[in-house]
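Input/output pair, single chain:
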Amino acid sequence: APDPELPHPLRCQDKAQLGEFMKQSGIEVMPSYPKELIGSFSFESPEQYFEFITEVSPATAKPMAQATEEQKKEIKEKVIEKAKSFAKGSEIVFPWSALVVAGLKP
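Output:
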């Protein structure tokens, strides 16, 4: 699990936690915020998804570059198998959400 004290994509995944974090930073959160945005990422196949995350995402590209060929093969098989559980028709569709906050610093 990521260190809760260091910045990372999941640090403020809870609306209350995000609002509290902003207040601690001296920022006055605007009324009706935070807001949640919801969407999805689609891929033509599990293999295309694997290629995307290993070539585009720094979070996976570096560890994959350091893995042995045997480890890479095992990781690829596991990721592709898990990605198949997100199949919708002929595509792989991953839901996502993000919290957006607006505030003023007095």
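Strands lie at 28-29, 35-43, 87-88, 91-100, 103-104. Residues 69-83 form the longest helix (15 residues).
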